[in-house]
Amino acid sequence: MRLRILMNDIAAGAASDGACGSAADCAAEELREASLQGVACVHGLSIYAETTNHTLLVDTGQDGRTWDNAAALGVSLADVGAVIVSHGHYDHSGGVMRFAAGNPEAPIYLNDKAGGDYWNLRDGATERDGARYIGIDRAILSLPQTRLLPGDRVTDIFGDGEVVVFGGATGRRLWPEGNRVLARRTEDGFIQDTFDHEQYVVLGDAGRTVLLGGCAHNGLLNILDRFHELFGGWPDAVVSGFHMMKQGAYTDAETATIRETAEELAKLPILYFTGHCTGLPAYEIMRPILGEALYYFGSGEEIVVREKDGKTACPAGAGEKTKH
């Protein structure tokens, strides 16, 4: 199983000294050795994935620059078998229309609530004084290849168990504080977004399981609880933003929440690959707690998940971390 980061907020290696000192660090080492010049870094997320039998995209970044990156990295959009959009925000869905123009056959899967009226109310803004629409281009909903998935169901995308989508993460354990400024507009005004439009992708291949979470607005711990409820056990790896990014300094309470989240994640036998809305300051808080189980990815990097053999995924010749 291979995953390629087509779009992320930072460049490859920006959060690492380049040393292959851990299982998570070494999983991106092969690509770091290659030139990534010409690969854009833009706020947003897009991940290309290959399993034994399928190719797919999870999210599309905020615009067509994602596909410029794909071309630079040798990824053909014409060969993509499906697109799964993790939630109804522009920075994960903005590349859909250009993708559809180039590949009109591949189905595009969204949660059935992804077309909602979603806004950012940062600093108490209202629609008149700076609130910002952050939802999807609703033309996506009219594409003939768009498929809407009910969030309370588990959907096997190709019917063979290699790509499964689920939702319904409703817990509020250590819910990300950055969610407080994100809202849904209704006839009665703005209300707190509950992120019931969020969905998660499980890749199962060669005895390995990888969970892709988009922004993990519902909190990674709550999403993992839902995974455990539905499937039992835990994934071998998580590839997701943690939605901890903030403009300005963290409060003491926010810092404590990030640390506590890392402490809870460290109890699980999982490797964590993060980027996008996590932000480097949050990563720096979490890294001393999670150690070699945490890696911050950049645009263009590749994560290789090898066949299960009792060790974690890692390119040949690099260090390994025994699963516990």
Structure overview:
The strands form 3 sheets. This protein has a 7-stranded mixed β-sheet. Strands 9-10-13-14-15-16-17 form a 7-stranded mixed β-sheet. Strands 7-6-11-12 form a 4-stranded antiparallel β-sheet, with no helix packed on it. Helix 7 (252-265) packs across helix 8 (280-290). 20% of the residues lie in helices and 21% in strands. The model is unreliable at 17-35 and 310-324 (pLDDT under 50). It contains 8 helices and 18 strands. It is of the alpha/beta class. It has helices spanning 23-26, 29-32, 65-72, 90-93, 96-102, 220-231, 252-265, 280-290; strands at 2-7, 46-50, 55-58, 83-84, 108-111, 118-120, 132-133, 146-149, 155-156, 163-166, 182-186, 189-192, 200-205, 208-212, 237-239, 271-274, 294-296, 302-304. The protein starts with a strand and ends in a 20-residue tail after the last strand. It has a single domain, classed as Metallo-beta-lactamase, Chain A, CATH 3.60.15.10. Strand 13 (200-205) and strand 14 form a beta hairpin.
